[in-house]
Amino acid sequence: MQKPMPPIPVYLSLAMMNCMSSVAASMHAKNGLINWNPALKAKAENLQENLAKLSAVSAADFILEVQKQSSERFLSLLDGLQKYTQTTSPEIAPTPYKTIWSEGTTSLRDYSPDSPPQSPPQAGGRILVPSPVYGGGLGRGNNILLIPSLINRSYILDLTENTSLVKYLRNTGFRPFMLDWGEPGEKEKSFGIENYVSRVNKAIEQIEGKITLVGYCMGGLMALASALNNQKKLNGLALLATPWDFHSPDTDRLQFGMQEIQNLQDMLSKMEIIPKELIYLMFYFLDPWPVHSKYSRTHDDSDLLAREHWVHDGIAMARKVAEESFIEMSCYNVTQNLKWRILDKIIDPANIQIPTFVAIPSFDRVVPPLCARPLAELIPGATTISCPTGHVGMIVGKNAREHLWAPLVKWLSKT
To answer: Could you tell me the pTM of the whole model?
Structure first.
């Protein structure tokens, strides 16, 4: 698999701006001349205290040191990017699977080690898959249907040999299935989220026996919507880093007025498909600064290389999905306001009547804790855990097994 490249010109341009502005900004901060954002009050006060300790340092020496550290930081990023581009990616998505159903660009993968041999299914065809019985102290069923987000590749759930939730589920006695959305094709160009939820419903029909839906990020919203229509077929529902209140105080977003919303709508209306590069940059600018430290170490760690491979291997988004995500949800907060409608039904988490597991990363910048927590609070009797990780680290970080995988399997074994 060819390694996808990061937007290096963007990284370097932003790093150069940071380097060139550091001297002026540091001097203003040292002299107490910056009008800080109230949200940064605590960090600003801490910075001012540290700068006060440098009162004996002359302005000339202070400027020289800031210039030196800024230059070293920029050169470190440049070196890290160069090494990253020259490093071979590790094996991605290593767990064997069979494709048992497909429709359009959507396919359903069966990761069980003993799936019966079969011919590739015709598009839209159905192969009913019997559910074997595994050991492992399981409850009423062991079929797990993993539902990834629409804007990233599904293999984040099966990244490498060391960081595969799919493999962990299989090795602990469960039978994992996973939906793979693929790039939007001709038919999917007109899709909204509802159309993808319909495909989740069709995927559920392919599997014999009870199922637990496990949705990650935006996939959690689709899992929730599907669960409300399939509760008799399901053992349970697990929602991992799933957004709900898009106007929570810890959610980074632009405060759009009606004119800005209309401008965004006009921009999206001119694109049939939203390029994956544009989607990546929208999320990158939520928190661009860690890129410096990330590339100084990524090339030395195969799992971090794989994560970076996945981050830049995005998927384009259908225009209607983008409008629903960036306008209806982000601007109008239709989920939290209980105005999100799928298949003629308001998506109200209070109507979930099956066991539910909600995992909320504590350091998530994509789906911050206060964005995800209201969803857990609305679902009757939901089991909720907090993971001391970020959005991606929860799934494939070095402590993912301890903080998410094991608690999830423990909960699954009781459903």
So the answer is: 0.85
Q: Is the pLDDT score of 28 beyond 70?
A: yes
Highest average pLDDT, of 126-135, 138-147, 176-185, comes from 176-185
pLDDT in tens, 364-383: 989 999 999 999 999 999 99
Segment 316-357, tens digit of pLDDT: 999 999 999 999 999 999 999 999 999 999 999 999 999 999
Give the rounded distance of the alpha carbon of 374 from its chain centre. Answer: 18
- Give the Cα separation of 31 and 203 in Å (integer): 62
How many other CB atoms are there within 10 angstroms of residue 54's CB atom?
Answer: 12
Q: Facing residues of 152 across strands?
A: 314
d(CA 354, CA 373): 18
Question: Ranked by mean pLDDT, which of 3-17, 19-33, 104-118 comes out on top?
Answer: 3-17
Two tokens, residue 235: 């053992």
**Residue 244 φ then ψ, to 5°:** -145, -60
Yes or no: say if 193 and 110 are a contact pair by the CB < 8 Å rule. Answer: no
The arithmetic mean of pLDDT across residues 28-42, rounded, is: 78
Q: Which two tokens stand for residue 328?
A: 């209806």
SS (H, E, C) the chain: CCCCCCCHHHHHHHHHHHHHHHHHHHHHHHCCCCCCCHHHHHHHHHHHHHHHCCCCCCHHHHHHHHHHHHHHHHHHHHHHHHHHHHCCCCCCCCCCCEEEEEECCEEEEECCCCCCCCCCCCECCCCCECCCCCCCCCCCCCEEEEECCCCECHHHHHCCCCCCHHHHHHHCCCEEEEEECCCCCCCHHHCCHHHHHHHHHHHHHCECCCEEEEEECHHHHHHHHHHCCCHHHEEEEEEECCCCCCCCCCCCCCCCCHHHHHHHHHHHHCCCEECHHHHHHHHHCCCCCCHHHHHCCHHHCHHHHHHHHHHCCECCEEHHHHHHHHHHHCCCCCCCCCCCEECCEECCHHHCCCCEEEEEECCCCCCCHHHHHHHHHHCCCCEEEEECCCCCHHHHCCCHHHHHHHHHHHHHCCC
Does residue 342 or residue 35 have the better pLDDT?
342
Assess contact for 371 and 360: CB atoms under 8 A: no
- Taking Cα atoms as reference points, which of 373, 378, 372 lies closest to residue 351? 378
